[in-house]
């Protein structure tokens, strides 16, 4: 097998691994997908993935291919697409050329639910099942709408901010500002319940649990990176929430 | 009544989180059902004990078993079902509360909540690990 061809295989595999990791797949899935592709071609590919770097190398040659992923939000549809393509390649339904084309298409394609659907989804998540009989129904209805605004603030902040975590601060700020304001105006019963419920789409509970799952699988570096990231996000939301309620109390004090 | 309301709202919550995280459309319904059953088990277990680990562990076990079954049915990676169906179970709000207490300087509450987060997450993860190995055995046996 020529060296160029090997390099090309590693390049395509690197792209697949990057898409998988950036869209929220676990590191073990990334590594096993690359293994499968290598087996289907008949090359001994080794892959090591962490949250900050993916290494791919072959057993027969000395070169290693390094990819730096930029992990952001979940996009599980892309994970599913790559999974389907690699499965078909492993079953020899498509050739390597077709695999490359399809992976490139997945990389460039914007696969997403529409904004109204996402907004509705964020609203649904904002009605937390654990508060059903602890908060009043009025508060939960308010949480539905405040959660949507918080989610939009998070997305807006992530898109426009130069520094990471500013989106989380913006989301926490908007939610706590509105909830405290509504309580002070006498519309809402308990600001704390609304804040907890409306923060559901923002808080990093799922990444934190996934990070522990990776540590249990002995992917310790990757798990730690994910865990620290989750703690940072939670801390940013906390700072935003404190800022929000402080602003309301400050305003009321001034008026 | 409590259980039924919990079932419906955790279903909606799971589907909502599935939409935010961009789960493929064919998976949404299965993920929603898995999440709702997991939450129902959590509610049932929580009513019987004041133990923190047991309800989370049993709910994760349920989600793990049902999720693997559904993943084979829709031919998708099982993570696609885990991520949304975990949303109501996972200690997201507690980790937020803990970090908020840290910012305010209430270290005792902060530490308590942080340990609570770790315990819940561990209970869920161990539930998953056991569910997965159980499922592999059962699946081989049935096949």
TrEMBL record, chain A:
InterPro entries: ThrE-like_N, ThrE_Dicarb/AminoAcid_Exp. Pfam families: ThrE. Keywords: Cell membrane, Membrane, Transmembrane, Transmembrane helix. The chain crosses the membrane at residues 135-154, 161-181, 187-209, 230-252. The keyword Cell membrane applies. It is a multi-pass membrane protein. Residues 12-244 form the Threonine/serine exporter-like N-terminal domain. It is found in: Cell membrane. It comes from the Bacteria. Belongs to the ThrE exporter (TC 2.A.79) family. This is Uncharacterized membrane protein YjjP, DUF1212 family. It comes from Weissella hellenica. The lineage of its organism: Bacteria, Bacillati, Bacillota, Bacilli, Lactobacillales.
From TrEMBL, chain B:
The keyword NAD does not apply. One of its GO terms (cellular component) is plasma membrane. PANTHER family: SUCCINATE TRANSPORTER SUBUNIT YJJB-RELATED, UPF0442 PROTEIN YJJB-RELATED. InterPro entries: ThrE_2 (IPR024528), ThrE_Dicarb/AminoAcid_Exp (IPR050539). Keywords: Cell inner membrane, Cell membrane, Membrane, Transmembrane, Transmembrane helix. Residues 7-133 form the Threonine/Serine exporter ThrE domain. One of its GO terms (biological process) is succinate transport. The chain crosses the membrane at residues 28-45, 52-72, 78-97, 118-139. This is Threonine/serine exporter.
């Amino acid at each position: 097998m020529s060296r160029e061809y090997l390099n090309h295989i590693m390049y395509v595999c690197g792209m697949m691994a990057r898409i998988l990791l950036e869209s929220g797949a676990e590191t073990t899935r990334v590594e096993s997908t690359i293994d499968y592709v290598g087996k289907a071609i008949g090359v001994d590919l080794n892959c090591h993935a962490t949250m900050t770097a993916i290494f791919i190398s072959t057993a027969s040659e000395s070169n290693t291919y390094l990819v730096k992923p930029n992990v952001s939000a979940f996009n599980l549809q892309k994970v599913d697409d790559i999974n389907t393509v690699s499965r078909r390649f492993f079953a020899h339904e498509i050739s390597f050329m077709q695999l490359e084309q399809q992976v490139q298409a997945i990389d460039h394609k914007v696969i997403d639910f529409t904004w109204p659907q996402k907004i509705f989804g964020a609203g649904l998540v904002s009605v937390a099942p654990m508060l059903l009989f602890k908060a009043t129904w009025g508060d939960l209805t308010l949480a539905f709408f405040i959660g949507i605004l918080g989610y939009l603030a998070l997305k807006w902040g992530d898109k426009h901010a130069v520094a990471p975590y500013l989106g989380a601060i913006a989301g926490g700020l908007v939610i706590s500002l509105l909830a405290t304001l509504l309580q002070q105006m006498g519309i809402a019963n308990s600001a704390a319940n609304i804040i907890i419920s409306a923060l559901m789409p923002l808080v990093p509970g799922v990444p934190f649990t996934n990070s522990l799952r990776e540590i249990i699988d002995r992917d310790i570096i990757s798990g730690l990176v994910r865990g620290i990231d989750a703690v940072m996000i939670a801390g940013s939301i906390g700072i935003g929430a404190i800022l929000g309620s402080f602003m309301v109390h400050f305003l009321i004090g001034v008026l | 009544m409590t259980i039924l309301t919990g079932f419906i709202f955790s279903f909606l919550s799971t589907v909502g989180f599935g939409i935010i995280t961009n789960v493929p459309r064919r998976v949404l319904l299965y993920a929603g059902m898995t999440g709702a059953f997991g939450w129902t088990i959590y509610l049932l277990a929580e009513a019987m004990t004041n133990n923190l680990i047991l309800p989370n562990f049993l709910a994760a076990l349920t989600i793990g078993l049902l999720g693997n079954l559904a993943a084979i049915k829709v031919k998708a990676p099982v993570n696609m079902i885990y991520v949304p169906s975990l949303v109501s179970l996972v200690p997201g709000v507690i980790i937020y509360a803990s970090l908020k207490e840290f910012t305010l300087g209430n270290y005792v509450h902060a530490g308590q909540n942080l340990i609570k987060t770790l315990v819940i997450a561990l209970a869920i993860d161990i539930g998953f690990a056991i569910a997965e190995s159980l499922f592999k055995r059962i699946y081989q046996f049935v096949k």
